[in-house]
Amino acid sequence: MSAGAPAGTARQGTQMVLLTLAAGQFLMTLDSSVMNVAIATVAKDVGTTVTGIQMAITLYTLVMAMLMVTGGKVGSMIGRRRAFAIGCVIYGLGSFTTALAPNLAILVLGWSVLEGIGAALILPAIVALVAGNFLPEGRPRAYGLVMGAGAIAVALGPLIGGFATTYFSWRWVFAGEVVIVMGILALARRVNDAPPETRVRLDVLGAVLAAVGLGLAVFGVLRSAEWGWVIPKSGGPAVLGVSPTVWFIVGGLLVLWLFFEWENHVEAKNREPLVRPSMFGNRQMTGGLLLFFFQYLVQAGLFFTIPLFLSVSLGLSALETGVRILPLSITLLAAAIGIPRFFPAASPRRVVRLGLLTMFAGIVILFATIDVNASARIVTVPLLLAGLGIGALASQLGAVTVSAVPDRLSAEVGGVQNTGTNLGAAIGTALAGSILIAALTASFLQGVQQNPSIPQQVKSQASVQLAGGAPFLSNADLQAALENAGASAKVTQAVLEVNEEARIAGLRSALAVLALIALLGLFFAGRIPTRPQRSSQG
What we know:
mainly alpha
């Protein structure tokens, strides 16, 4: 702990404290996945389109990414527990507003804005509060469980959302979040926190530059599926012949460069910066941040591709899809808790490397077994392995990043860490989606052109209409569209067969890239220390 902290603040945290912080992490992550299975229903209830709801989901991610660094600094200024509690109140108000939302504007206010602001205060505070409530030897297990709770929320989100939407209403999910927030607030009094030692002023210019830079870059990534990464999609916008995605990312990077230049200036003047650039010279901390980025990139890519295979290719319901993803949650939790408990002296670097290799093995097995005749059973072993790998990383990386700097900087590290994980998740989803659609489109058009059962007129129409990307359609939806267009039974059957092959080609391409990214993480694992870490007290 930092100097002057009350005696006993750094004692071994209780299970109730751990439950409180894990519940907060679970709740913050749940919103990213719980409503994906109910987008059409939500759109109908609030009188908007599917695009409108997707915009609300995108804005939620965007608000979090823009404010996460500032949220971490606010926690350092007012106290981490207070920031955690204020964030919970704002998040609860957002959930309550969303549950009652009569239209899209109120939905965006509650879901995207208020919940996003609340999450930006809560998530960095969680990282710092783990450091403040657990002795160094207990932190890997605590961080593993907390980070594992977030990953489990991603896995259970479709199951919870599907169940609530099918049997009750999607609004009950957000009403339930209000109840959970009230419970977390009641338990938060048990969480220890050292009061802020000095009063510092918020670096407002730094906060604005960080928000604008991250906002531009993340927005460009999130819109890449509609705009294209570099080459504009057919019918999409273009600036100087290039996709707007490039300009948003470049603009964001330029603003972030200005941000770091300003922060260097502030730190050189012995004033309080929003983030200390000198921290990034710490090899251990940057290694942990990079591995967090890779973990969430691969994790988000898997949670994008596998549900598509289960729900669209195989036609499983939202509930059935959620059940099939559960093996990942089981091994993830087992590794996140079990490794620190049963192997407390294990080398963090070795655990991280084994975790990356296990994730890679799971993805490769899925890549090798997925085909048009595959059943839902083929995802079980790959998900068990992927969950084991993600859990292994989760059991180490939180302690690695926070222990690399003095405890008084843990909230700042929490803000940067959660920015990295949000960025990784955004890029993972966008990258997997764009690769999948690009490969699916190429395979579909090639299959259509080479199939003698499909008339030339249909081939020409497909080439023109699908130039911007073929949709990932189930056989039932495609068959209905073809029948409405007056296609013959022979042509319909031929197109359905081509679509089945194209879907698998798209999924395999996305999985191949995710496997390569998991391997790429091995090159940065050398920055992870070989011995279990102890806190830096300065």
